[in-house]
Amino acid sequence: MNHSTEVFTLSAGPTMATHRTLAALGQPIMYHYDPVFLETFGRTQRKAAEVFKTKNDMLLMQGEAIVALEGAARSLTKPGMKVLNLVQGVFGKGMGYWLESFGAELHEIEVAYNDAVSPEAVEKYLQENPGIGLITMVHSETPSGTLTDCAAIGPIAKRYGALTLVDAVSSIGGLEFETDEWQLDIVVTGAQKCLAGPPGIGMVSVSPAAWEQIESNPNSPRASYVSLLDWKEKWLEGGAFPFTPSVSDVHGLESVLDQVLEEGLDNAIVRHTNAASATRAGAQAMGLELWAASESIAANCVTSVRVPGDLEHLDIRAHVRAKYGVMLSSGQGAGNLMRLAHMGPSANAMYPIVGLTALGQGLRDLGAQVDLGAGIEAAMSVIAQNN
Amino acid sequence: MNHSTEVFTLSAGPTMATHRTLAALGQPIMYHYDPVFLETFGRTQRKAAEVFKTKNDMLLMQGEAIVALEGAARSLTKPGMKVLNLVQGVFGKGMGYWLESFGAELHEIEVAYNDAVSPEAVEKYLQENPGIGLITMVHSETPSGTLTDCAAIGPIAKRYGALTLVDAVSSIGGLEFETDEWQLDIVVTGAQKCLAGPPGIGMVSVSPAAWEQIESNPNSPRASYVSLLDWKEKWLEGGAFPFTPSVSDVHGLESVLDQVLEEGLDNAIVRHTNAASATRAGAQAMGLELWAASESIAANCVTSVRVPGDLEHLDIRAHVRAKYGVMLSSGQGAGNLMRLAHMGPSANAMYPIVGLTALGQGLRDLGAQVDLGAGIEAAMSVIAQNN
Amino acid sequence: MNHSTEVFTLSAGPTMATHRTLAALGQPIMYHYDPVFLETFGRTQRKAAEVFKTKNDMLLMQGEAIVALEGAARSLTKPGMKVLNLVQGVFGKGMGYWLESFGAELHEIEVAYNDAVSPEAVEKYLQENPGIGLITMVHSETPSGTLTDCAAIGPIAKRYGALTLVDAVSSIGGLEFETDEWQLDIVVTGAQKCLAGPPGIGMVSVSPAAWEQIESNPNSPRASYVSLLDWKEKWLEGGAFPFTPSVSDVHGLESVLDQVLEEGLDNAIVRHTNAASATRAGAQAMGLELWAASESIAANCVTSVRVPGDLEHLDIRAHVRAKYGVMLSSGQGAGNLMRLAHMGPSANAMYPIVGLTALGQGLRDLGAQVDLGAGIEAAMSVIAQNN
Amino acid sequence: MNHSTEVFTLSAGPTMATHRTLAALGQPIMYHYDPVFLETFGRTQRKAAEVFKTKNDMLLMQGEAIVALEGAARSLTKPGMKVLNLVQGVFGKGMGYWLESFGAELHEIEVAYNDAVSPEAVEKYLQENPGIGLITMVHSETPSGTLTDCAAIGPIAKRYGALTLVDAVSSIGGLEFETDEWQLDIVVTGAQKCLAGPPGIGMVSVSPAAWEQIESNPNSPRASYVSLLDWKEKWLEGGAFPFTPSVSDVHGLESVLDQVLEEGLDNAIVRHTNAASATRAGAQAMGLELWAASESIAANCVTSVRVPGDLEHLDIRAHVRAKYGVMLSSGQGAGNLMRLAHMGPSANAMYPIVGLTALGQGLRDLGAQVDLGAGIEAAMSVIAQNN
């Protein structure tokens, strides 16, 4: 199997891109100071801000979204400052290691990796621990498929005088997200999840309060690939690139932003919701158990199911890919689970059917009891209602 | 719905192309006398002959395959000659109208459009009607999804001194086809069916005996778009194009020939067979009836099912496309039937599942009784065994 | 040399396509009855009519433009009718052979292949030869690079009651052309010349008077690949395709029509004019002689120059391609001449410089006296004035 | 002007990509743990090593090449170590600022930005200043178009026990470069210069001695976007990506490596040499002065010329782009100069002519005295000899 029509990429990012996105990535490469590219870059920034629903500054950082997360965390963390890190999965955990190594006094609220930190717990912690300057959280924990309630936590943070840094890598473009309405200071996303774009570019929005903190932080990276300040001082204020931007990735990014804006963000969110509903209904009707402790904290960009019996997630992933040409994601550190993503194009009508059928039959091939027919009936019933 | 990842094209041609094919169609357009294009054109002819399994001359004719069929039929038909036309579907029927208008004395063996003319019937007819100079037949009647046994009829024709003209438009590249082994004189195919290429180019192989007939026929088109002789005299013998060839379509065609040759024709045939088997098993388990009178004459490139109850095929096609983003084919003159194609990439593992699920649920939406779960179980069982 | 950036295609069609056109050709292939494609096809027809500047019916015929020319000539020619064919080059000459073979009583005005038939000569002929039912002419004789004055001849034909059939294959999209204003009945063009599209699709506009003639002509092709009537009766009147259209070519065609309409037809015409002016100035300053008898009849889509000394055009074409990676056109039957085309993208600022430099140095390599520096100075002087 | 065929990108990177490269960038996006992508990534690493001519470890770092330069410089610099930085241009100067900020004891040999640090000067410095642990240099200073003699300096460094870190961003793939033969420890390049690929990916080769230094350096970045160690420990040794790689950029990178390896590195080097020779000859014959102090230190990837009279480089760049559709580079900090690049496809026959003509006429438009004709004559004379 080696051509794309033979593989269904239903993984949790990078995910399959539309043909339009691929065509955009293959556009002629221009000089970065070509007047056409300068316009393109600025226009793409503005479209990204529209998708973030923010009036804050928007930076397009060259690299996988983690470059922007690292840059933001380094830039915000003053030595010795109190930072509250919310942990409900692998990415939240990793942020804690970073914060400590950047010199923060680390505070954490940690729950099981199939659960979510509640806004109430956050508020209680802030009451009991005055002086927290920054709260870090992951909106959608991709490896577990769970959500954090940023809509509630953002305003709480503001009330207690803390800045917020949100990893929204796998949510923006597919899940509801309101940067300004939720009062979030720094928000980071990537192109390769719900936007279904290339993995080589990150986006980060920065509020005036966050800039103030960054500029007053002696540890903020400068003259560095991970520097937010370089982009602000050279590009936003001076019109010069700190280094050559990735022309192709900007083309790809503009295209996926165009696509979601043309579809309408609200429509895209409904589409992701429907795909997740169908998948959850199908998986449960097949006899599989959802990973998330409750449906209310299950993210609509990726459905995680517990691996049944004594099977191993990596074996299942390899078997389904090899035998049925369907690329799913496995647990990636969060547990023995399998993930069917609903991101961009894969959050469309028939993809949940493809994913459920391949997973169900694959599990059966490996010895599990699966009621495939019932699963497809249940999923199609949801799809028929919603489409 | 307007981007490709939102539509599954499971129609009976044009069918979905691989990304590699699309990239080939988008290659830079060269001048037709550029030395690189001259090499490309010759190489593509040779690859087409390899896929036809023939040592006969190969012409690449500029237009949908029907341009080659018209050219071949006009070129072979001398005024007043006896031609036996085998009719088991729409395309066979149409050939008869042509033959008469071109001046032939028309003989026909016609069966119902869900049946096939048997080799025995052909032999009997030839015994009883001496002097038949040409037999015309359609290997795979796409609108009904049925096969003609060209492997048997070719040698019979030779024994009775008749030339053969075979419409193999929807079979070559996906079904077993042996031009020379089966002793066929003129064979025509297109790129947009099992080869999953662009619809703008036809291929035609011509045996020495056929050329002799064509050259001695005063009615053979010359200086015409449908002329086979122009291509022979100008291009094959003189290295000059009779008119500008479609550079892009040749690029697309070479790519699909490469793809099937790299995969191996035998492997491609097995793949089409497996997709058809899964689809037939699934459709029947859902409670649907196959259109073909028997499985032995069902073509592996497209599965036709009888429309249940008093539903109408065009309504079903429109509903399934609008609601589930799956483009199926309907009857196209052969009857009240729906068709799920297995052509090129759509003859891969999970596409039969997509087609069956969308069709099954669509029929149910419109009021039919369909056991969707049983259908998917049956189809996946076949796929699990064969993959 | 094997990748496109190593070859400058400055030939007289097919010519280099823009990246946008190539991307359009590589769009996903849809089923021809997919609702999205049905809309695309109709929209493309309307855009073609806009480029033709006509309210007449527009047909998109599947194949190189010559399929439409053949179809139009066959459809209009009643047995024994008097047809006046204007000959000033290879394509005009070929039309005469066709007309005779289709049963016309052939009348011709023929001039040398570097000259043009004047409107006065046509009017005089019509006065002296009453009963001419059709006048056939070639707007731009690509192999010689000369123009016919259709703007004047169209109204003359109307006054004498004759229909007109115009081969505008290499002019529409780059040269001034007014189908309705000039009162032309049937006009044919292709995509691969000034529109810089794929060579696999023709466009033809048909006036009501032409349809009347076609419908009353017993020889009009029907049920044929070259039939105009099939497209009228099945597609224009019935919404059904007479056969599968070339989905990819329609995508490519719509894109090139979009491009020229977005640029503005008038702007495109100015661009072609400027490129031709620069090239003519450069060629003459180099010491080369223009092929056209006077500049007033030189077509702005292709500049022909007389081959100097005893050199041979085919040798020059091969040498320039092999040594400098520039693909020019040679004489193609019209004489010992070399052609630098200005078609679509090649009618842009620096391409005339590339063509002139490669041709000039190539001629010099082969022994001719060429003042290369003076040629570039002269051409750039024109470009600097016009840009 | 907005489509690619209307702009000649002759800038000093990003430069124009071949159509094949663009097609590779537009290939379907796969999951990074798809078995096909895992193979692709490993294969691309090996091809990069082949182009570097090294048996050292090869890392593909996600971002513009500067991410790899920063990572390498941080990783090699132990606090207080003596580093000798060679400065002959903007990038060399910047490295010095970095080294100091990373805690090195900075030593520099600096010459004018149109000159080159000689191997003799390096050797003398090392003799006089024992204990230098690292020498940093820029093989090709893109903003000035000058070369450093790494072939000589590499072995000198080894003799004095110093590691070497070489910025070869704009040379590999177009200029002679022998990582192992020249005994270089860390070499960094990007894809967007002589390889004419996307700007989003860096490559870095690391010798065993360099790894030893990095592993023993407490300041080596870990768990960071700029970390070399992360890639070594997770990917090279563990088969797991430290973060999601840029699938599209890897596709684009493999393609450009394939292209240069198929052409042959030696052939590519000759091609760049010839383009530079033609350009230098043309510029001088026009009356322009080369920026480089002597031809022997002029880099063959970009020719810099001094701006004549009192003109300003940025004005010239803007004028030539706006009026002639040619994108050149200007000085970028190195001085009042204009640059015509020869990188990848632009190092082909006719591009120097395009660049020289547009620059020459542009300068003339702005008031300079330029003998355009003589320049083209001189350049074509070199091209005619070499092709």
Automatic annotation (TrEMBL), chains A, B, C, D:
Organism equals Leucobacter denitrificans
Task: Output the Pfam families linked to this UniProt entry.
Answer: Aminotran_5
Q: Which domain of life is it from?
A: Bacteria
PROSITE patterns membership: AA_TRANSFER_CLASS_5
Name of protein: Alanine--glyoxylate aminotransferase family protein
Obligatory cofactor(s):
pyridoxal 5'-phosphate
Give the UniProt record's GO annotations in the biological process aspect: glycine biosynthetic process, by transamination of glyoxylate
GO molecular function terms noted in the UniProt entry? alanine-glyoxylate transaminase activity; L-serine-pyruvate transaminase activity
Kindly indicate where the leader peptide sits in this chain. Answer: none
Gene3D superfamilies (alphabetical): Aspartate Aminotransferase, domain 1 (3.90.1150.10), Type I PLP-dependent aspartate aminotransferase-like (Major domain) (3.40.640.10)
Q: Where is the Aminotransferase class V domain?
A: 101-335
Q: What is the lineage of its organism?
A: Bacteria, Bacillati, Actinomycetota, Actinomycetes, Micrococcales
